Structure formats: structure tokens, C-alpha cells
From TrEMBL:
SUPFAM superfamilies found in the cross-reference section: 6-phosphogluconate dehydrogenase C-terminal domain-like, ClpP/crotonase, NAD(P)-binding Rossmann-fold domains
Catalysed reactions listed for this entry: a (3S)-3-hydroxyacyl-CoA + NAD(+) = a 3-oxoacyl-CoA + NADH + H(+)
3-hydroxyacyl-CoA dehydrogenase NAD binding domain sequence ranges: 323-501
3-hydroxyacyl-CoA dehydrogenase C-terminal domain: residues covered: 505-600
Protein name: 3-hydroxyacyl-CoA dehydrogenase
Family membership noted in the UniProt record: In the central section; belongs to the 3-hydroxyacyl-CoA dehydrogenase family.
Record CDD domains: crotonase-like (cd06558)
GO MF annotation terms: enoyl-CoA hydratase activity; long-chain (3S)-3-hydroxyacyl-CoA dehydrogenase (NAD+) activity; NAD+ binding
Length: 727
């Protein structure tokens, strides 16, 4: 296999083309790096070569590092990672110095990169090591260093080069937030040097004109000073102190990547460039040896992508949706209509009254107007998307729909009637999906004449923002319905998980106990501030009390009443109800009523925790240990995930982990509940949950699966990581 090839022309320009065989996007492999190294050696040694242009044979430049490279390096332990990274540094540094005499900075050969499109991760770190970067005038191209998003940082010199090129402050959004830019913005920010219609031609021209001084990077020139100041410069001092505080404030110290990145920049800024690269490699090694980074890469990159590509799709012919009927144009229906129309699917949006249907459609108008004002969409695009949505009250319009998504009131009688009315019109082979959040699918399927074509497609609110869709199989749901749901989710570019039918399915089953545990603690007299901070310090995006304010306290009351009615004496959450019923009675319904566990100002902006909590539920004199609160909040979710697996609701731990992060923000640094349990270890977890169960009750009882795994020294990914565990 040849990833890189070189052609030398009569003018003395060597064109190196990166074109990974059999892939639509270039990623850097071990073999590729070795090939590039050999070609650079050849070009530098060949007297006929005056300069080099590196480009891609594909429409994009590169998507980043092949993650197998990282996995391969890790097999050699910390030394393996460090040596692997240093190998890459040597190659890039060779490109940067390009054969020049380091003392006189003369005699090097100019090397430029020409980016036809997207350049991410190592796909930008390599260009940053060259002397000039040309990008095609391609507004669709994305340029940046997104590593931080999957729990690592740019470890191929990108951290050191970019912070020295732009200064720590200007580099921060690209390094710390993984900000991506189109070529024009990348040029304005100083990430790349030029935007050209034909970047290869422009790069070639530049290479032929370049002189010795053009090849010397600022950090290799005499008297280099870091833009914005080094750490001991008064301005730099402020930047680093501020950045350190900001990172801790934002991540609560749970994301090792942000800390390691900042350390690499700070320590690197104090020493010469080559030592800085070594420091960067050390921090990168430190990070890769931290289980959080492997877990994040596994869930947020590898497994998320596998699920999106249909890892659990049953064998069935292509089920691409052409025309979707959405019944109920309320909050959810309107959102589902928008994402469907955006994906190019024809939409029939039905409600009881024409006004309601129109209001549902106008939700799309609003979102498109907002996108236009942010220059993310055009008037033509808006017209095109809106033209796909037919808002009506007439069920006859559902003729020809190959998929129905029902999002009417959460009432089985209404849903049954809607199912019958729709099935009277739609084609025999159409699939009918319900967006119910609480009603069992198998029960709702009783209203259907074709229960094998009946399925749950559970969206999260707001539909246009939330990335997860939970697909629920009822008892009689057939494989084609699952394939249809998965193909639909793929069309609308979301991530699916497929689960079996049980109370609250998967996501709500785990998140409700989290909220309830926080509320229970309030009733016990635990300080609400302590509860909220304990959750955030574990990496939960919202504390349980803020979360229930967001989802609304009356919804909590509604769910509590329905659950109590269904469970009778076995209902375990009386202590929780005392608190939320009291808040609901006082009209404190959460953010929407501008009063809940928190106070809100007139504009609905959250202020502090409500002082009335302490009056109704006085804080105990002795507060529990932070760790105990964190264990309660994390295990209450994770044990529920294990039970869902044990009971066969969840069939694949990959779905359990990806679904938890995307569905309710389960501490992303951990890779999800199963990854977190693996990080903790089954034995240690069982010991902790046994203790919690003894102190707080059977909701913490160690599931048999976990205690068996503890006894055998097993891990979830060791045991179930390869995929499905149940059919
Ligand atoms: P909503 O009250 O905003 O909208 C329901 C809409 O259905 C209303 O516009 C109503 O007029 C319409 N409707 C009622 N009966 C109808 C009928 N017979 N024919 C046509 N239209 C009819 O409710 P929502 O929040 O959009 O929820 C809808 C469904 O989605 C519910 O099953 C709910 O449990 C589920 N769900 C809600 C959320 C959420 O966060 N709100 C999340 C996931 C799932």
C-alpha cells in the first residue's frame, strides 16, 4: 500500500501526494509516516529538487491520525507512546528545518502544503511544520485541531507550534475548544497563510520564489518572543493564570486533556523549541496512559461512528425514508419535521387544527431565519426546506408516507386513535413509530393492525440540538422496522441506540434516579450547593436540581404519579415526592415558571439556589463527605445501566455508553457508565455499592452481573466490548 507518492517536475518541484488507498479521507498511518519520511529524505538529498509541495489526491487533505496508530503505540506502554510521538516529531522537525544549516539558517529547501479541503488534527499539524500553507477557496473545508473533543490534545507538534505562532491567548480557542474554521477564517486567524483558487499552483509558485529567510520559523529566528508574552512576562503571566483558572472552572479538573494541554503550552514556553516538543510528547504520553482518554476515544469516536454506520442494523434492504408523516405538531413534532426536512425528506405535518399545524411548521421558519442571520443558511435553502413541509389537518395527506412518527399527547387513547386513523391511509408496508417517552411500545402496538411494523423512535428535546435517538423494539417489532428507524436516524444525522421495551426505556430509566437521588439528599438535609457541586465535579454537565428545573418539576410530579399508580406498594420514591410536590404546590415548576430549586430573574436567567429550600429542609449540622455524594450520584445512574443490560433492555454496552453521554450528558470524561465502572473496577464498585446499599437502601444493591464480574476479575469491555450480548 502506498499512502504518499512523489513526482518531480522539470522545474525542480517535488509534488508529494497523500492518497490513502481505498479510503475517502486520508488519515496518517505508521506506514504512511515512514513513507513520507523516505520521500522527504529523497527530496532533500536530490540536488535537482528545489522545493516540495505536499498535497492530497482526495477532495480533502486529511481527517487526522489513524486511531489504530495510537492503539498500536499504547501496546508498548508509556515508552511505546513516547517513542512513537517523538518519531513523528523528528519527521515534522525535519520538514521544518528542510536541510538548512541550523546555525546560519541557510541552504534549506522550501516545503509548502496545498490543502484542497478539510485538514484536521495531524492533517493540520503536518502543514504547520511546513513553511507555507495554501488552502483552496472552499467554504465547506474545515481546518483545525479537534483532538480535545475526544479527550486528547494535538500531540504532533500542533500544540507547541500553534501556541508559538499565535500566542497562548489567540491559540486557546483552537487548542482548548477544538474550534474549526473555514479557509477564509483560518487565514484571518493566522492558522494558514493563503487562500487560493488553485492551491497546488500557488504553492508551487511560492516554492520556486522562496528564499532562505522565508523558511525560518519565528521560533527558530534569533530574538523570538512568544506573541502575547511568555509565562514570566507580565502579559503572559496574566494569560496563563487566567487560562488555568478558566480551565478548572469549566472542567472542574475532570478532563485530563485540558490540563495536560495547558501544562505542555506553559512548560514548553519556558524552554527552547526542541525541548518544548519533548515536553509536549511527555504530556501526550501521560494523557494517553490515562484511562479517561481511551474511554473517550472509544465512546465518542470509534463506537459512536460504528453505531451511526449501522453496527446493530438488522439485515434488510435499504429503508431510506422518502416521505415522513408526523402526527402532532407540538414541541416534538415540530422539531422532528425540521430535522427531516433539512435532511431532504418530504414531510406531512398533521395536527388537530390547521393553526396548530401551521405553528409547528413555523418552528422551522424560525430556526432557518436564525441560521440566515448567522450566515449559516440562505434564503433559497430556507425556501427549499419549507417547501418540503406540508402542514395540514387532513390524514389523507399521509398517503404515500413510508414512515409515520407520532408525537401527539402522552395519552394511550389518543395515540391508539391516531394509529388507527393513520394506518387506514398509509401504504401497507409503511412503518409506524411513536415518540412516546413513557408508554410501553408493546402496549401502544395493540392499536396497530401491523405490530411488526410498529416501533418506538424516541427523540430528546430540543430535537434539532440533541444528538441521540433511542429506538425501542416492542415485543412484536420486526427487523425491517428497526432497519427503517436506523436508516431514518442516519438520514437526519443523529446517533441511534436500539433498546428493548421496558419502563422508561434506557435514557430516562437512568436519568430519573439521578434527579431523584439529588432530591432525596435535599430531604435528608444535605446542602443543595454541595449536591450540585459534587455532581459537576464528577463531570456531570448539570447538577440534579438544575436538571429537574430544566425538565420541569410538574413533569416530575406527573411521572411520579403515573409510576406510583403503576407500581403500587412497591413504589420507592416517597421521599422524593414530598419535596417536588411541595415545590409544585408553591408554583415553583422550574425554569419555565422562573422559580424552582433555583431562583431566576425576569428574563429567565438562573440566579442562585432558592433560599426557601433551607427553610423547608434545613441543612444538617454534619454534612456527608463529598465522595459519598459523588458515589451516590454516579452509581445510581450506572447501576441502572447495568440492570438494563442484565434485563436485556440494553443489548450492547457500546450503546449504553454512547447513549448516556449523548442522551443525558453522563460524565463524558469517563466514556459512559460502563466505561466508568471499568475505570473504577468491578471489585471496587461492588464494594462501594454494597456499602451504599447497607446505608441507603436496596436501590444501591449490587446487581448480580456486577458482583459476578467482581468475583471473576472481569471488566465490561473485556466481557462485552465486541458488540451485542443479547438478541
Ligand atoms: P405537545 O403537547 O407540545 O404536542 C402535542 C401535539 O399533538 C399538540 O400540538 C396537539 O394539538 C397534537 N395532537 C393531540 N392530539 C392529536 C391528534 N389526535 N391528531 C393530531 N394532533 C394531535 O407535546 P410534546 O412535548 O411535543 O410531546 C409529544 C410526544 O412526544 C409525547 O408522547 C411525549 O411524551 C413525547 N416526548 C416528549 C418529550 C419532551 O421533552 N417534551 C421528549 C421525548 C418525547
Amino acid at each position: 500500500m502506498t499512502d504518499f507518492t512523489m513526482q518531480k517536475d522539470a522545474d525542480g518541484v517535488a509534488l508529494i501526494t497523500w492518497d490513502l488507498p481505498g479510503k475517502s479521507m486520508n488519515v496518517l498511518t505508521m506506514e504512511g509516516a515512514a513513507e513520507l519520511n523516505a520521500l522527504i529524505d529523497d527530496a532533500l538529498a536530490d540536488e535537482a529538487v528545489k522545493g516540495v509541495v505536499i498535497t492530497s489526491g482526495k477532495k480533502d487533505f486529511a481527517g487526522g491520525m489513524d486511531l489504530n496508530v495510537i492503539a498500536g503505540m499504547k501496546q508498548g506502554g508509556a515508552q511505546g507512546v513516547f517513542d512513537g510521538v517523538m518519531g513523528l516529531h523528528h519527521l515534522l522537525r525535519k520538514i521544518e528545518l528542510a536541510g538548512m544549516d541550523f546555525k546560519t539558517k541557510k541552504g534549506g529547501k522550501p516545503i509548502a502544503t496545498a490543502l484542497p479541503g478539510t485538514a484536521l488534527g495531524i492533517g493540520l499539524e503536518l502543514p504547520l511544520a511546513t513553511h507555507r500553507i495554501f488552502a483552496a477557496d472552499n467554504p465547506k473545508a474545515k481546518i483545525g485541531l479537534p483532538e480535545i473533543m475526544v479527550g486528547i490534545f494535538p500531540g504532533g507538534g500542533g500544540t507547541t507550534r500553534l501556541s508559538r505562532k499565535l500566542g497562548a491567548m489567540a491559540a486557546a480557542p483552537f487548542l482548548l475548544e477544538g474550534k474549526l474554521s473555514d479557509p477564509a477564517k483560518a487565514k484571518a486567524a493566522g492558522l494558514i497563510d493563503e487562500v487560493a483558487t488553485d492551491p497546488v499552483a500557488a504553492a508551487r509558485e511560492w516554492v520556486l520564489r522562496a528564499t532562505d529567510v522565508d523558511l525560518v520559523k519565528p521560533w527558530d529566528a534569533k530574538g523570538y518572543k512568544m506573541p502575547g508574552g511568555e509565562p514570566y512576562h507580565p502579559a503572559g503571566f496574566m494569560t496563563f493564570v487566567g487560562a488555568s483558572a478558566m480551565i478548572h472552572g469549566k472542567t472542574m479538573g475532570v478532563y485530563p486533556a485540558a490540563k495536560a494541554l495547558l501544562s505542555a503550552v506553559y512548560e514548553g514556553a519556558l524552554v527552547p523549541f526542541d525541548t518544548a516538543l519533548k515536553i509536549e510528547a511527555r504530556w501526550f504520553t501521560n494523557l494517553l496512559m490515562n484511562p479517561s482518554s481511551s474511554a473517550m476515544i472509544r465512546s465518542l469516536f470509534i463506537n459512536k461512528e460504528a453505531l451511526e454506520k449501522g453496527a446493530n442494523r438488522p439485515e434488510a434492504p435499504d429503508q431510506t425514508v422518502k416521505k415522513v408523516g408526523i402526527i402532532g405538531a407540538g414541541m416534538m413534532g415540530a422539531g422532528i419535521a425540521y430535522v427531516s426536512a433539512m435532511a431532504g425528506i418530504e414531510v406531512v405535518l398533521i395536527d388537530n387544527a390547521q393553526e396548530a399545524a401551521d405553528r409547528g411548521k413555523s418552528y422551522s421558519t424560525g430556526l432557518l431565519d436564525k441560521a440566515i442571520s448567522r450566515k449559516k443558511a440562505s434564503e433559497e435553502k430556507k425556501a427549499e426546506v419549507l417547501a418540503r413541509i406540508t402542514a395540514t389537518t387532513d390524514y389523507a395527506a399521509l398517503q404515500g408516507c413510508d414512515l409515520i412518527v407520532e408525537a401527539v399527547f402522552e395519552d394511550p387513547t389518543v395515540k391508539a386513535e391516531v394509529t388507527k386513523r393513520a394506518e387506514a391511509v398509509i401504504p401497507e408496508d409503511a412503518i409506524f413509530a411513536t415518540n412516546t417517552s413513557t408508554l410501553p411500545i408493546s402496549g401502544l402496538a395493540k392499536a396497530s393492525a401491523r405490530p411488526e411494523q410498529f416501533i418506538g423512535i424516541h427523540f430528546f428535546s430540543p430535537v434539532d440540538k440533541m444528538l441521540l435517538v433511542e429506538i425501542i423494539k416492542g415485543k412484536e417489532t420486526g427487523p425491517r422496522a428497526v432497519a427503517k428507524a436506523l436508516d431514518f436516524v442516519r438520514q437526519i444525522k443523529k446517533t441511534p441506540i436500539v433498546v428493548n421495551d421496558a419502563r422508561f426505556f434506557y435514557a430516562n430509566r437512568c436519568i430519573i434516579p439521578y434527579i431523584n437521588e439529588g432530591i432525596r439528599m435535599v430531604a435528608e438535609g444535605v446542602s443543595p450547593t454541595l449536591i450540585e457541586n459534587a455532581a459537576k465535579m464528577m463531570g456531570m454537565p448539570l447538577g440534579p436540581l438544575q436538571l429537574v428545573d430544566e425538565t420541569s418539576i410538574d413533569l416530575g410530579v406527573k411521572i411520579a404519579k403515573a409510576t406510583r399508580a403503576a407500581m403500587g406498594d412497591a413504589y420507592p420514591d416517597g421521599a422524593v415526592d414530598d419535596v417536588i410536590f411541595k415545590l409544585a404546590d408553591a408554583g415553583r415548576l422550574g425554569r419555565k415558571s422562573k422559580a424552582g430549586f433555583y431562583d431566576y430573574d425576569e428574563a429567565g436567567k438562573r440566579q442562585g439556589l432558592w433560599s426557601g429550600i433551607a427553610l423547608a429542609w434545613p441543612e444538617a449540622d454534619t454534612q456527608p463527605e463529598l465522595t459519598e455524594i459523588q458515589h451516590r450520584l454516579m452509581y445510581i445512574q450506572s447501576l441502572e445501566a447495568v440492570r438494563a443490560l442484565e434485563e436485556g433492555v440494553l443489548e450492547d454496552i457500546r450503546e449504553g455508553d454512547v447513549g448516556a453521554i449523548l442522551g443525558w450528558g453522563f460524565a463524558p470524561w469517563s466514556g459512559g457508565p460502563f466505561s466508568w465502572l471499568d475505570i473504577m473496577g468491578a471489585a471496587r464498585s461492588a464494594e462501594i455499592t454494597d456499602g451504599l446499599a447497607a446505608k441507603f437502601g436496596p436501590r444501591f444493591a449490587t446487581p448480580k452481573l456486577l458482583s459476578d464480574m467482581a468475583a471473576k476479575g472481569e471488566s465490561f469491555y473485556g466481557k462485552f466490548g465486541a458488540g451485542k450480548v443479547a438478541a
